[in-house]
């Protein structure tokens, strides 16, 4: 089991982060690394705001996995909407993942009148949820801008939060939290990591259980 | 037939035809019905029937008809559309917005695509009615200019007519009641005697200011404000548009709001009036992309699905309002290749001798034309070719290559005008041809980038990618052929390549090789000339050379050395003809004249001495002049385009200080506008740090004193740019300057 990053379940997963832009790429890389062993279905990346940098995606995903990724970039809200509308017809059965970063961003721009944008965001949210359900596929989304964030949160089946810590990327969800960190010096563990591995101590002599402070472990 | 169009308050267009012997005649056209088009997603019939029904009782709509038109340049055939004919020219956008709102009552958003919504009214009118807006006779022009502080103060007193003061010092308008009345009289006199067709204004604000003084600038009373001033972002750059005005019967050109006029002249504008079929006043305010779009809109109306026909067609492509066309899904590998940009060959940061420069003529437009790279041809569904190198996109052989048809005439007209310029005698006035060459150049330069612009109506990102890929292949071919012929590539970027003789090799003549490359790639590789030497500057914060910072001295054989009785005819060549500069301070708009001049002088020293010490000694002389306070402050003015308001600057920059100063003296600047200032005390942080160029003596520190230390720093940096390729960086210059040593003899040269 990967102790650093969670697996992505079918359904819409919202990744929230203020300071860890690499979290998206690492989650995608982790998921695709697993997925290639199970299925050969393609992954789709519906891009907004130039997130789909080939170099960055490759940095965090194994080469074999990145070959299955298909990218389409939207540059206006209208284009984003057209991609979303066409998504049910585009996604192949057995798809491994759909990534939709900055979901509401382009609709919030000045060139789309507000009433039209609101309606397009509604449809976008419903369609992403329908595609996740219909294809039984994980749909990983981000929505860093405040506009439309609440609407987008409401369609998420799962939420992950990512933050940068001194020890590395920390990801937390309803049933996952990072307890093993990889940094420049090797792996770092947390007390919950050892508790999980060895079982909780039952005597007063055991280590105190408090906040999960990383403890270095050379590798 | 209709050189300018007014729209009356009741929405009726009035077209003005020029009279042969001066003056112009108006004709109102109350029967004109502007039309927008609506298509439904997947060409379904029910939404169109619903929309026709919904619009039936809209008083703004005169009629709704079923028509068939192509939805895009790539459409397989025409689609059913509604032609929605409207009563008034000024209600087009209103109706379009209402359709968008009504759509939500019954359908998902984006069920309807709307066309021909955001066309300028005069352009729409002449295009729909088939009128040619090209003037049939020479236009009478009246040039009115008012300095900016006077515009801000609402004072028409300093108005200039054709460059001369409207009112002399109390003489011309002596009997008028006030200075404003005297100016008004003078303008009226000119209007009456010349009956101008075109008003060339330094600022549109002259229209309401003169109106307040009782002058009607139009051929009928009144004026209207078409748009307020605004700040916008385009291509990531902040821009500013001033308010636009309209007067009856005359075309207004606001110099402060016309890119093409600023980079060309009236002849350049009129060239595109004819090519785009767009009236002068509207064309003058267009961006370069706007001019290209206007030409494309006209050509798209003639599109029959595969070719641009000679006449407009019933089923042509109307102009899409909101661009919904998306790019294709791509693999990461294709995306990576597609995003690679132009060819670059990393030069060595050093001085290179005997270097030849070769440039492909209008590389991108010629790729579009000669290779048929166009939105309608790239990645077509019908041809199985992988014609685009690396990307393996197909290029359709069954279609016209729309963009090639649009650009072809411009390329031909430009080379014709250039040929006329080459053949012109020395006494001939070639201003108009020069202006046309320049105006077309701007459209050609931008046509490639515009394909990737997200709002370009007929742009397509795959076209942009394919042009780039073909260009890289062409540059690689050129590199290979030149190397095979014994030449070494010194530098190469986008469409230019610099070569020198490879040591221990025999060379075939470089022009001969260029001709062979021209034949092979079908785009002319022009021999630009030979440099005695060319220097590539090192990058400022990284190793290697910067790609676009260089300077060089053309050899005698390349510059036209005049026949002269002087002892050294070569010395009579202009600096600008002798040297080529790119990216260094003397070429930058934000560099003040003093530093630019000094850098040019130091450059001549670089050539004479080829020794950094001598250049530094020469620098010392400029520094002394500066520190003695002997430089005219006008030569120290820095022009800077501001990108935000003073409050939005978090750091206390000079731009912020200049903005604060501008506001304090009553000439506030908006983001996107330029501000011109002299630094008087760089240690201050507020408006005291700078003075604006036009401020009078009493607003300055005594003796119009400037901050010599600040400018000295700029001067040293300009010097560093020149000798960095010789291995000298700023620290070494400063330590050299500090040495208390005799000024070398070389500093007394000339």
Within the largest sheet of chain B, what's the order of strands? Answer: 18-20-21-19-22-23-24
The count of helical stretches of chain A stands at: 7
Count of folded domains of chain B: 5
CATH superfamily of the largest domain in chain A: P-loop containing nucleotide triphosphate hydrolases
Number of domains of chain A: 2
- CATH C-level class of the largest domain in chain A is Alpha Beta
| Number of helical segments with 4 or more residues of chain B | 22
The biggest chain-chain interface is: A-B, 31 and 25 residues
What is the makeup of the main sheet of chain B?
7 strands, antiparallel
* Global structural class of chain B: alpha+beta
What would your notes on this structure say?
The complex is a heterodimer of chains A (219) and B (750). Chain A is α/β, with parallel strands linked by helices and 219 residues long. Chain A is 36% helix and 25% strand. In chain A, strands 3-2-4-5-1-6-7-8 form an 8-stranded mixed sheet, with helices on both faces. Chain A has a 3-stranded antiparallel sheet with strand order 9-10-11. The longest helix of chain A has 22 residues, at 114-135. The two termini of chain A are 18 Å apart. Chain B is an alpha+beta fold and 750 residues long. The model of chain B has no long low-confidence stretch (mean pLDDT 92). Classes of the chains: A alpha/beta (219), B alpha+beta (750). Chain A binds chain B through residues 44, 52, 54-55, 57-58, 66-67, 69-76, 78-79, 81-83, 85-86, 90, 111, 113, 115-116, 119-120, 123, and chain B through 97, 100-101, 104, 108-110, 322-333, 335-336, 339, 454-455, 461. β3 (69-74) of chain A pairs antiparallel with β17 (330-331) of chain B.
